[in-house]
Amino acid sequence: MNLEISKAINTLLGEPQRIVIIPHKNPDGDAVGSTLALWHYLNDMGQDATVIAPNDYPKFLKWLPKNEQIINFEKEAATAKELITNATVIFTLDFNHLGRIGQLQPLLEEASATFVMIDHHQEPSDYAKIMYSDVSMSSTCEMVYNLIEGLNGINRITPEIAICLYTGIMTDTGSFKFASTTSRTHIVVAKLIEKGANNTKAHSKVYDTNTPSRLHLLGCALKNMVILEEFCTAYITLSQEELDNYDFKKGDTEGFVNYGLTLDGIIFAVIFIENKEEGIIKISLRSEGDFSVNEFARAHFNGGGHNNASGGRSELSLEETTEYFTSLLPSYKDQLNS
Question: What does the radius of gyration of the chain's CA atoms come to, in whole angstroms?
């Protein structure tokens, strides 16, 4: 971590602050893990910190220590607004553009607090006074560990902080199989286990708590998979009707997109999920090797993220979206077959 950033944050935290910590909308394991870990660390050192999430997050993350302290903006808007208005410091974690926080965006745009960004996605915007942005990092949780280390706070890492950080790193690296997993990532994970992170518990709580309806939904998704061998591509569709039929709950489709990449010869996998309430098709894109789904999502689906893992959206119908998607592939055939 950059020494200048460490010094700036250390100076900021050198006096009492009213701190708000915010993850992106639809927070995942990295977002929840990093914000809770930072919450534990700041409060343990005597700061007044609160996590405010734009909306709810999956049940398989609600075992993390003190997750009940997270304020859900959709349920506690008045409290959240007051905290943001009165905040002197706002940490934004696991996103780098205020458009990623839904209804919280106008509140943060009007806030007078000092902003600190901690994020590993590409092309950050410049809303934060202090920016710790590093696209080479496996996860925001690994970056929070680096921050704590830069603040000479390793001895302050409790088992609660350790398990939050471990869980975020585990989920954002696909259980340590993605290319972003470095030797440094494994060193950090080893230190977190030494600090009390129960790795077996983390894997079990996140991956082994399926409901019958979720497994049936997975079966539906796999049945819907379309394989385009000519373009080394596979995609899945899930309509709103199918989601409703299988009693969809937030987080149920987490990881579904990765099944396409388990097929021999497939390097580009996509899932299209209809969301009638928002009037969009939510898109998750994954790839292996040098094919950049970040560039693909930015160019065609108003999205972005990482080179091998990105998201996007479409306001067309599900059928129109997949037709548009397949029409794009011939232009990428050489890249996909290289």
Answer: 20
Contact indicator for 217, 250 with CB cutoff of 8 Å: no
Is the pLDDT reported for residue 338 higher than 90? no
List pLDDT tens digits, range 247-257: 999 999 999 99
80 and 17 housed in the same domain: yes
- A 10 A CB-CB count for 129 gives 14
What CA–CA distances, in Å, run from 295 to 96, 101, 262?
A: 16, 22, 22
Task: Report the distance separating Cα 155 and Cα 98, nearest Å.
Answer: 33
**Farthest CA pair distance, the chain:** 60
Cα(111)–Cα(61) distance, rounded to whole angstroms?
A: 29
One DSSP character per residue, 232-278 reads: TEEEEEE-HHHHHHTT--TTTTTTGGGGGGGSTT--EEEEEEEETTT
| Cα–Cα distance, 276 to 317 (Å, whole number) | 10
At residue 286, what is the residue type?
R
For 319, residues 6+ apart whose C-beta sits below 8 A from its C-beta are none
Q: Domain span at residue 314?
A: 212-336
Task: Tell me if 122 sits within 8 A of 135, measured CB to CB.
Answer: yes
Question: In angstroms, rounded to a whole number, what is the distance separating the alpha carbons of residues 305 and 270?
Answer: 14
Q: What is the mean pLDDT of residues 212-221?
A: 98
Read off the CATH number of the domain in which 264 is found: 3.10.310.30
Q: Record the tokens describing residue 243, joined without a space.
A: 């989601």
At 85-118, the pLDDT tens digits run 999 999 999 999 999 999 999 999 999 999 999 9
pTM of the predicted structure, to 2 decimals:
0.93
- What's the first-to-final CA gap in the chain, in angstroms? 35
- Domain ends where: 163, 183, 207? 207
Number of H helices, E strands in the chain: 13, 12
Residue 72: which H helix or E strand, with range? strand 71-72
Q: Which two tokens stand for residue 154?
A: 């390793």
Residue 149 and residue 19 share a domain: yes
